[in-house]
Structure formats: structure tokens, C-alpha cells
Amino acid sequence: MDESPCYKRVVLKLSGEALKGEGSFGISSSTITEISSQIKKIHDLGVEIALVIGGGNFFRGARTHNLDIDRASADYIGMLATVMNGIALRDALEKQGLTARLVSALEIKAVAEPFIRRRVLRHLEKGNIVIFSAGTGNPFFTTDTAAALRAIEIKADLLLKATMVDGVYASDPNKGNDKDLVKFKQISYSEVLAKELKVLDGTAVTLCKENSLPIKIFNIKKEGNIYRSIIDEHIGTTIN
Asked: Beta strands of 164-214 (E only): which ranges?
């Protein structure tokens, strides 16, 4: 395999669940170390990398319908969870010898920089890793949408989404028999929206469609896949 990058600047969307490894809650030290080491390998290829992190390993605002709490309040709690993950990820990246900047859509001066587009672009041009946290800073918007928005704002070549499945399927891969599963190697934005495939938030797909930003969906559970997603066009499913 030719280990040269296919892209110059990418945004990698990581779910909070990806950080908990085999645990049921919180952050796995071995998992976050493995993720950060793969990011270093990508960085060493000369790729500019920004990350968008979720908070589902601590709190998910969209799943609080059974709690006596307002949805907007729950979403803000979820945003704070992403900041906690961002702090941990920044520390793990710095242990790899990288310079990482944590950017928050909510103003938390003690731990993170505010989102200022031109400053973020300068960080990337200098070879720094940028971690976007707190989603868009607004309730009712997912971190998928935040990832699409930030990728468009910084003129990324690709939006990568690390998931628990190895691509986009015609039906839920967690249901039914393996023989009935049909995996797409490539699929259009319109098909994803028309078929209501739940691999990515619909608002995020629409944003990417309107701005011609390709999306790659791949399985983070397979060791080394974050790195391979950059150098191997056959990994996962591409939406364009």
C-alpha cells in the first residue's frame, strides 16, 4: 500500500463512546492513547488535522426524555461533556509530542480557546492539532452537525466519521442476518437522505451536500483504521 495521504486537511469526528473502549462509562487510558498515536502517524504524513469530539461516554442530551430535565439544558450538559473529553484528548496528544489546541464553542477561558476561524486556520497551518468541543454551542444540534460545520468553515478536504460499523449499509447492520446486509462502497448525499440512513445526522449530510464536502464513514473498532482511512481509499464508505 502506498502510504501517502489522499488529503491535505481533514476533520475527524470521534464519538464520546469511542473513548470508553470496552468500558461502559468514562475514558479508557489505553483507547485514548491508541487513538492519539494514530493521529500522530497521520500528522507525520503532513496532514492537517482537526478533531470534533462527542460526549456520549459521559452524557447524551438526546436520550434524556425519561429524565425530568429540559432538552436544551440537557444539551448544554452534553456540550460540557465534550469539553471534558477534549481536555483528556489534548493531554493524550501532547504526550505523543504534538501541539494540540482545545477550542470550545462555549466560552470557558480557563481550559479552552474560543472559536475564531482565522486563529484556527493559523493553528492548522503551523501544524497544530485542533480539537473542537462543545458542539456548535447551541442546543438541538448534534456533534455530527458541528463536525460538518467546522469542516466547511476551515475548508477541509474530507470529513471522517469514526463509528462502530465499517461503513454505510442499506439496513441496520446490528439487525438481521449478515447475508442480508448490503454495504455501500460509495453513496450519494441524496441517497443517504432519501433512504434515511442513520449513519450521520441529516442536517450534517445536507450541509456537506450543499458545500460538496465528501464524508468517509469507517469502523474505529478495527485497530489502525483511523490511520488507514487517510491512506486507503477503500476503507469504509464514501458519501459524495
From this structure: 168-169, 183-184, 186-187
